[in-house]
């Protein structure tokens, strides 16, 4: 059996390695049009910013090493230009010599990856100070240009790469402007969470321009300044394009490989395409959601490695299957860490779920040992109590919590299950009631007796003219400093003596600064026969953040 793999990096090399581990009988050949076969794409921003000192540390394996270790023939700078599936042959161009040759296969694996998208008007000319962040050559080109000591940088796009490059360039001392097409950074997340990221970026001196695009460019060989659709002029010495990627499906389309709804190659759980003996893995292939079962496209190195291993196993007689993804991701922006997993609120509602939404604001570990505030937004399905997704923001402990939540969601955990997890506790690492445990407890309470209400829902009801009693249970001093619109101040300890002044039949909202005291007040009212009592999720702190977000978006 002759296995030919088009593309290497994470997915292609994983196919080859797993196939060879399973059998010594197969011939395994890899063609890659690049110079490097295995490198950390995700590490490139940190090398470009100087946090990773040597670019060699991002390229731990070369073709010679792979040949010795796995007896796999790898041809770099070789581009497959045509596939003849009926005859199972390939046409390959040697990019170094210009010569063309033919090869054949019994099994073909498409690991052609994805290419960065170049948005207009940047696609209308070549500029020596415009860079993308996709491969080792990009990093080398950036390093060469950096000797000119640019002072101002323009970043197009505020996804993972855009935000990582923002951090790195600020650390290098550049003045950074970010232009984002959507009205929020990190569009895959909920806007009320990413607003915290936007505020943090501005605090660090980043010029953030949302809901706008570059309309025109000034400069011949180098871009000197741009003007946006909304009329903002930005001077720059260097431009980073991070406007997303597109799967490289051209070869696949030419031979009739099915392209899925995500615009990536459609595959089954064994990474097989609709054509016999043709597989697709990595950034060129779509995955599916663990929660909904529907196709999704989440091009990450971790997923690419899994897909490659699965295909390599299946091709050589194994029975591995892809189990889907949650879209789990994490990034750092300065000293803020941001993670997400599963469905966002907007995605869950679009899928038809009626969700309970919790904002849990707690320290990541004991405050007397330097614990910092951690904000978790978690969703549960009201019908089944199943956890559907979570987003976590803080200065520490985010990776631990998002991984625990991702694991729980993968195995179908309900809200109550989170509370019963036996998680590691010691003051330097967690609180006695870990934020994940508290998330489960609070969501379970909300689903059965103590309903929550979000800032969005309060404002919507008020705009509709609905009558509500809103009770601020904090100190009078805190109430005077800031409070929910329409709220009256009744401290928790005075609440029982003021019951006669409240209407048990009117929908009532209790709140404190973050949620705990508001919950205690909610219990008091419920125990005294109030019919409909909500606790404001995330308290006044979350409410004020949401109002501030609305004000900033309306400007």
Automatic annotation (TrEMBL):
Q: Where is the Rhodanese domain?
A: 464-552
Q: SMART domains per the record?
A: RHOD
Q: Coiled-coil region(s) at which residues? A: none
Q: Name one GO molecular function term.
A: oxidoreductase activity
Q: Which Pfam families match?
A: Pyr_redox_2 (PF07992), Pyr_redox_dim (PF02852), Rhodanese (PF00581)
Q: Tell me the superkingdom of the source.
A: Bacteria
Per the UniProt record, which residue ranges are transmembrane?
none
Give UniProt keywords alphabetically.
FAD, Flavoprotein, Oxidation, Oxidoreductase, Redox-active center
InterPro entries recorded:
FAD-bd_OxRdtase, FAD/NAD-bd_sf, FAD/NAD-binding_dom, FAD/NAD-linked_Rdtase_dimer_sf, Pyr_nucl-diS_OxRdtase_dimer, Rhodanese-like_dom, Rhodanese-like_dom_sf
Tell me its cofactors: FAD
Per the record, the similarity remark reads: Belongs to the class-III pyridine nucleotide-disulfide oxidoreductase family.
Q: What is this protein called?
A: NADPH-dependent 2,4-dienoyl-CoA reductase, sulfur reductase
Species the sequence originates in: Marinilactibacillus piezotolerans
């Amino acid at each position: 059996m002759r296995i030919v793999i088009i593309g290497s990096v994470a997915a292609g090399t994983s196919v080859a390695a797993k196939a060879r581990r399973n059998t010594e009988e197969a011939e395994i050949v890899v063609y890659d049009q690049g110079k490097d076969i295995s490198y950390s794409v995700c590490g490139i921003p940190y090398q470009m910013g100087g946090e990773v000192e040597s670019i060699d540390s991002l390229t731990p394996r070369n073709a010679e090493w792979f040949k010795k270790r796995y007896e796999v023939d790898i041809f770099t700078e070789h581009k497959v230009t045509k596939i003849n599936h009926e005859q199972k042959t390939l046409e390959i161009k040697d990019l170094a010599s210009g010569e063309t040759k033919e090869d054949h296969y019994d099994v073909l694996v498409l690991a052609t990856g994805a290419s960065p998208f170049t948005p207009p008007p940047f696609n209308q000319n070549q500029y020596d100070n415009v860079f993308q962040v996709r491969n080792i050559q990009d990093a080398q080109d950036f390093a060469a240009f950096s000797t000119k000591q640019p002072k101002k940088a323009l970043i197009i796009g505020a996804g993972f790469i855009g935000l990582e490059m923002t951090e790195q360039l600020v650390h290098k001392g550049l003045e950074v402007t970010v232009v984002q097409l959507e009205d929020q950074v990190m569009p895959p997340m909920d806007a009320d969470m990413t607003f915290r990221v936007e505020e943090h970026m501005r605090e660090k001196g980043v010029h953030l321009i949302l809901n706008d695009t570059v309309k025109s460019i000034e400069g011949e060989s180098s871009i000197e300044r741009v003007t946006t659709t909304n009329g903002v002029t930005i001077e720059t010495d260097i431009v980073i394009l991070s406007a997303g990627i597109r799967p490289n499906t051209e070869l696949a389309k030419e031979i009739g490989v099915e392209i899925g709804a995500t615009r990536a190659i459609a595959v089954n759980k064994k990474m097989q395409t609709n054509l016999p003996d043709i597989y697709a893995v990595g950034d060129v292939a779509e995955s599916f959601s663990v929660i909904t079962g529907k196709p999704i496209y989440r091009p990450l190195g971790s997923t690419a490695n899994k897909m490659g291993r699965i295909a390599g196993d299946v091709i050589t007689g194994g029975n591995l299957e892809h189990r889907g993804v949650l879209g789990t991701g994490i990034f750092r922006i300065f000293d803020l860490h941001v993670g997400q997993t599963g469905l966002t609120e907007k995605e869950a509602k679009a899928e038809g779920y009626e969700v309970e939404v919790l904002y849990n604001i707690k320290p990541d570990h004991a405050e007397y040992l330097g614990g910092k505030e951690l904000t978790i937004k978690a969703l549960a399905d009201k019908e089944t109590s199943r956890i559907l997704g979570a987003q976590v923001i803080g200065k520490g402990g985010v990776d631990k919590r998002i991984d625990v939540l991702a694991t729980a969601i993968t195995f179908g955990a309900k809200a109550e299950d989170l509370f019963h997890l036996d998680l590691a506790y010691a003051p330097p690492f967690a609180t006695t009631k870990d934020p994940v445990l508290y998330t489960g407890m609070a969501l379970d309470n909300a689903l059965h007796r103590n309903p929550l209400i979000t800032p969005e829902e309060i404002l919507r009801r008020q705009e509709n003219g609905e009558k509500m009693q809103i009770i601020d249970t904090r100190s009078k001093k805190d109430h005077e400093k800031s409070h929910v619109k329409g709220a009256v101040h009744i401290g928790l300890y005075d609440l029982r003596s003021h019951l006669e002044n409240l209407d048990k039949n009117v929908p009532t909202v209790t709140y404190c600064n973050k949620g705990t005291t508001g919950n205690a007040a909610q219990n008091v009212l419920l125990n005294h026969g109030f019919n409909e009592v909500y606790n404001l999720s995330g308290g006044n702190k979350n409410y004020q953040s949401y109002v501030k977000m609305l004000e900033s978006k309306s400007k």
